[in-house]
Amino acid sequence: MRSQLTKQIFTACMIIFLMSFGLIFYVWNSYLARRNLSELRDKALYLSAIATQNGWEFFQDTNISGQGENTRITIIAPDGSVLYDSVVPAQELPNHSDRIEFQQALQDGQGSCERYSESLLEKTVNYAVKSGDPEIILRVSAEKDTIWILLFRMLSPMAAIVFFMIILSVLLAFFSTNTIMKPINHLVPENPDDRNIYDEMKPFVRRLIVQNQQIHRQMDQLQEEHKKQDAIRREFTANVSHELKTPLTSISGFAEIIRDGYVQEKDISHFADNIYKEAQRMIVLVNDILKLSKLESGSFEIQNQREEIDLCAVCAGIRERLLLNAGKLGVTISCYSEEAEIRIMGIANLIDEIIYNICDNAIKYNQPGGFVRIRIGRERENSEVLVEIADNGIGIPEQDQERIFERFYRVNKSHSKEVGGTGLGLSIVKHGMAIHHARIVLESKEQEGTCVKLYFPG
Ligand code: ADP
């Protein structure tokens, strides 16, 4: 019996069987004891009627004994002295005034008492009745087996019954285990069916069904996600090839006409400059692609430690680096901080890249005489740190505002190329912000300007 379930059922059966057996035995024994006593009382009453009619000496004369070989009659005077005994000569017996049945009978008319032998194997049941004139106490006694001797006598039939119980319990345990386990063993985890299962198992099967549904849903979602990722990857590859092909075609074209001698000596430096610019464009593009793929793969986070960064110093440094470019385009750039130092935890070069890209866009997509204003502050309500970059440039049409964070998405492709854009700047910003658990809010109106708000957890 190795199975836990079988063992438990077997134990339960045995407990029930043995308890029932014990209880039945106990009830049966109590019933027998009551019956013995009532038989003894009947005998005592019957003999006392004889004594009343014939006087107690009648017993002495006839030397009558109790009916049945182990019934003993004793006649006791009210002072406790024994007048007659059917087994031992009366004069050899001590005074019986201390016997309980005698005392009860003297007081109430009738009395009984059980006394055990020293070995506890036998007991004497006594019943005493007061009768006659002059008054005497007639006592009838019988030797009876105690429960222990009864048990001892019934040892072999009881052993047979217990053995039978064990066999029955084992069979019941095996049978019940099989019945319980059958529907469970037939349950298919991938496709559970609660129709053939019993009520107790239904909540478990339902949980299994719900879990299966969840797994299916998650698998569908994963497949969907996988398909989406695949499509994005294919689109990205196509875009990268296209973006690289344009400058390469130009470089190849310039080189070809120089090689074939179509360019005059004085124009060569001009053509070489074009080749240089296109190659530079390609380098910028490839660098941006590499940055983006690093951010997406998560390797950027692993390679760079988070540290405390003072955003005021970062923004001031970016302003310095962009001053020259801004000046060339006739754009002013200012930086204002609400506090002397505002610190956040982050990856320093990524934070610099994010703010730099946004400021660079604010200059690139501006107009001569325009401004770029950087403001660093704190949001009082939720203790976030805010970096706000506002410009009064060309603005972004409403329908494009959602999409400018997509890779290679530009509102005006030729303008972007003219100002040296790759279409990847805001994608890098979006990923960088996500790594910092920061959020970005864009407000823009065409021909009025753009305001980008970067909220970092404080
Ligand atoms: P790009 O390299 O072309 O600048 P970005 O990803 O940085 O690429 O920006 C995507 C597009 O969003 C830009 O091509 C431009 O059309 C638009 N854009 C971004 N910032 C601004 C801004 N401050 N004002 C107007 N348009 C902007």
Task: Report on the architecture of this protein.
The chain has 458 residues and is an alpha+beta fold. It folds into 3 domains: 2-152, Beta-Lactamase (2-Layer Sandwich); 189-297, Helix Hairpins, CATH 1.10.287.130; 305-457, Histidine kinase-like ATPase, C-terminal domain (Heat Shock Protein 90). The protein is 55% helix and 18% strand. The chain contains 13 helices and 12 strands. It has helices at 4-54, 57-62, 100-108, 147-153, 155-185, 202-259, 268-297, 299-303, 311-328, 348-364, 398-401, 413-418, 425-435, and strands at 71-76, 82-85, 110-116, 122-131, 136-145, 307-310, 332-337, 343-346, 371-378, 385-391, 439-445, 449-456. The strands form 3 sheets. The protein has a 5-stranded antiparallel sheet. It has a 5-stranded mixed sheet with strand order 7-9-10-12-11, with helices on one face. Strands 6-8 form a two-stranded antiparallel sheet. A hairpin with a 3-residue loop joins strand 11 (439-445) and strand 12. The mean pLDDT is 90. The structure holds adenosine-5'-diphosphate. The site of adenosine-5'-diphosphate has 23 residues, from helix 10 and helix 13.
Present as ligands are: adenosine-5'-diphosphate
Overall pLDDT, averaged? Answer: 90
Distance between the termini: 64 Å
* Model regions low in confidence, pLDDT < 50 over at least 5 residues: none
Tell me the number of helical segments per DSSP (H or I, 4 or more residues long): 13
Strand content: 15-25%
Q: Quickly count the domains.
A: 3
Q: What topology, given as strand order, has the largest sheet?
A: 2-1-5-4-3
CATH superfamily of the largest domain: Histidine kinase-like ATPase, C-terminal domain
What top-tier CATH class of the largest domain fits best?
Alpha Beta
- The helical percent reads 55-70%
- Helix-and-strand structural type: alpha+beta
Q: What is the fold named in CATH at topology level of the largest domain?
A: Heat Shock Protein 90
Over the alpha carbons, how many angstroms does the gyration radius reach? Answer: 55 Å
Overall outline: rod-shaped
Secondary-structure element pattern, one letter each: HHEEHEEEHHHHHEHEEHEEHHHEE
Q: Any guess at the CATH architecture of the largest domain?
A: 2-Layer Sandwich
Largest sheet: 5 strands, antiparallel
